[in-house]
Amino acid sequence: KKGNYEHYMQKEIHEQPESLRTTMRGRLICGDSSKAKSVLLGGLKDHLRTIRRSRRIVFIGCGTSYNAALAARPFLEELSGVPVTMELASDLLDRQGPIYREDTAVFVSQSGETADTLLALQYATENGALCVGITNTVGSAIARNTHCGVHINAGCEIGVASTKAYTSQIAVMAMMALAIGDDTTSSQARREAVIDGLFDLPNKVREALKLDNEMKDLAKLLMDEQSLLMFGRGYNYATALEGALKVKEVALMHSEGILAGEMKHGPLALVDETLPIIVIATHDTCFSKQQSVIQQLHARKGRLIVMCSKGAAQLVGPSGSCRVIEVPQVEDCLQPVINIVPLQLLAYHLTVLRGYNVDQPRNLAKSVTTQ
Ligand code: UD1
Ligand code: M6R
Predict the structure, then answer these.
(1) Taking burial as the number of CB atoms within 10 A of a residue's CB, which of 157, 310, 332, 354 is the most buried?
(2) Is 337:164 a contact under the CB 8 Å cutoff?
(3) ipTM of the complex as predicted
(4) Which ligand 2 atom lies nearest to the CA of residue 110?
(5) How far is CA 228 from the centre of its chain?
(6) Is the CB of 17 within 6 Å of ligand 1?
(7) Please, what is the angle between helix 164-180 and helix 188-209, to 10°?
(8) Which domain of life is it from (predicted)?
(9) Which one of 107, 111, 142, 369 would you pick to mutate in the ligand 2 pocket, going by the greatest count of ligand atoms within 8 A of its CB?
(10) 26-73 pLDDT, tens digit each
């Protein structure tokens, strides 16, 4: 079942061009001279009006599924015009946070069986919100108990570390944003550009997978480290959180994803010549701010590894000043799908080199069905 691969995680990372294609199959409409390009999500089409009219959209999930929603949030805010908030399921339950009838609550879960997410769904249902599921598992508790939703169709994911489900979740939430924004003519050009980007995304992911050997070399360099920081912002704040989650859960190395905008409010004190820091600085509207973060880290002799858009290495620092990972550039809101790929590969190679169990990290289960 693993084919030519040694581990499921490795297989699932490398099958992302195909899993993304299945996620989007039948859901992107090409358009022609008489019809605009659009998306069709069968499970949401009868609920779009209610979602557009809701007072807020609140994403609820745990772990990687939460991170996927965080990656999609800026684009959903842009296209829906509705405030979008985020809740970790356990925290929402701990606080018994407010959920209203006028809310759309979106439950994101690969397995569809995560206890905290399921209990949060029960809570939101009782509070009268419209409950939408985004899950990979047809017939799962979340698929059955939500009012409507979208199956991500990424195919069965076996490795405990979620990889292909993450990228497919982001693709689905981008399509959801496109569907919600479909009634607004002023965003049509933007929507069409993102739809084109989605069509081409599997090819771009295939290109990013060619970084495999480079990431293996980087893993060799980092394998004995105690700790690894990842700085991101904007669309790629989620990439920093998710990259760090992958490294800690499978490579058993301390890793922390940090919002770059928070750097001066504490994390900067950690910077020295030894602690490795990955800075995500691909091209988008936050790029110039990330350039200045890089300068400040350089000024403190930080040990930087910078992820930048292909051909932009000279824009992130004088040549030779740091290691760079160049990734293919796509539409800004889809860039998290590309940027996570080298970090998944890095986590994978670190795990193998450090001699840990890739597919079943200690103490973890694929589906967390207890609180
Ligand atoms: C559906 C079919 C698909 C078929 C396609 C053809 C299923 C599971 N899917 O896909 O095989 O090729 O029509 O038009 O039979 N739902 C929830 N909560 C969730 C996820 C989904 O309530 O968390 C509901 C949806 O609202 C929808 C149904 O489940 O009513 C199926 O969802 P989805 O598979 O995403 O719909 P389609 O893409 O239309
Ligand atoms: O099945 P779910 O998406 O609800 O699972 C949520 C988390 O338990 C899960 O994403 C976990 O963080 C993964 N092991 C991360 O790789």
Answers:
(1) 157
(2) no
(3) 0.99
(4) 3
(5) 19
(6) no
(7) 170
(8) Eukaryota
(9) 111
(10) 999 988 877 889 999 999 999 999 999 999 999 999 999 999 999 999
